[in-house]
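Severity: low
Component: inverse-folding endpoint
Summary: output formatting inconsistent between runs
Steps to reproduce: submit the following C-alpha cells with default settings.
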C-alpha cells in the first residue's frame, strides 16, 4: 500500500502510464463473475498510454456526479489500520456503501 503523503507535498501534476482498451475491431464480450470472482473478457486488447494527471483537489466544487461520473466528497473514516484486511471489510466497506448512498441517493449499494 502506498505511503500516506501530506497534501502540501502533493504535486499539481504527475505523469503515469494507464492501460486503455484498444479498438481492434473485434467484438468485446465480458462475462460478469459471481461476487468475489473475476470477470472474464474476450476479444479486444489493451494499449498503454502515458498521460498527465492533474490534482483535482483545488477544483473540487467544479465536478458534478451527473456530468463527470464522480465528485470529490470529504469523508472521515473510523479505520485505524489500512493494512488490516478484516478492518477494511468490516468498517471501510460499510462506510463507503453509506457514502455512496448519501451522495447518489441510491436506496441500495452492492
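Observed output (run 2 of 3):
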Amino acid at each position: 500500500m502506498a505511503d500516506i503523503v501530506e497534501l502540501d507535498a502533493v504535486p499539481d501534476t504527475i505523469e503515469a502510464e494507464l492501460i486503455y482498451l484498444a479498438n481492434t475491431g473485434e467484438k468485446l464480450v465480458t462475462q460478469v463473475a459471481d461476487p468475489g470472482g473475476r470477470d472474464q473478457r474476450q476479444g479486444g486488447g489493451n494499449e498503454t498510454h502515458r498521460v498527465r494527471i492533474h490534482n483535482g483537489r483545488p477544483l473540487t466544487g467544479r465536478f458534478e456526479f451527473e456530468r463527470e461520473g464522480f465528485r470529490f466528497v470529504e469523508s472521515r473514516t473510523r479505520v485505524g489500520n489500512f493494512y488490516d484486511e478484516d478492518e477494511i471489510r468490516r468498517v471501510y466497506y460499510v462506510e463507503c456503501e453509506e457514502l455512496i448512498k448519501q451522495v447518489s441517493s441510491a436506496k441500495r449499494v452492492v
